[in-house]
Amino acid sequence: MTLSKRFRYTGLVVGMIIGVTATIVGPAHAQSAAGISTDASDALTRMSKTLQADQFSFRSHTLRAYVGANGELLHVAHTMKTVVRRPDRLAVDIVGDDGAIKMIYDGKSLVVYSVAQKQYARIPAPAKIGEMLDVAQDRMQVDFPLADLLTEDPGKAVLSGVTSGGQVGTATIDGVPCRHFFFVQSPDLELELWLEDNDRSLPRRVFVTYRSLPGHPTFLAELSDWDFTVKPADTEFDFQPPAGVTQVELTAKANAAPANTK
Question: How many domains does the chain have?
Answer without folding.
Answer: 1
